[in-house]
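To whoever is on call:

I kicked off a structure prediction for a single chain this morning and the downstream step that reads the tokens threw a length-mismatch warning. I double-checked the sequence; it's 129 residues and nothing unusual in it as far as I can see. Pasting both halves so you can look.
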Amino acid sequence: DLTDQITDEKGTIWNGKVGLITVSEYLRTNTNTEQCGTHMLNNDNYSTCKNTDWMYNSVPSGGYMWTISPYAVYSDIVFFVLGISGYAGGVSNDSASFSSSGVVPVLYLSSNITLQGTGSIDNPFVITN
């Protein structure tokens, strides 16, 4: 379940400002928690879950979005979100050395920031604190 996943992720420490998302953070970006709120539920309902998760749009089409979350059983295995049609939106895991597209960096922002701009090319976001 999601609580166990978060517990497994606590061994991963990242102090940078840019990194990879954890699998539990990806699951929490879904508005349909009843069908998609845990790893197992998400995979049982992946065709529905990809449509109710705003983060899914960041998954490379035909590829993967790697997470920083380790698979608890093996130290070289990490989770990723599938962008491959037929299983798109599902969460799986594989060796960290498996080469394929899918590095999607994320920013971790503090709650005291101010965001200005619209995010367009003519009016980009400006982050201040």
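Update from on-call: the warning came from a stale cache, not from the record. Cleared it. Sanity check on the structure: DSSP finds five helices and seven strands in the chain.
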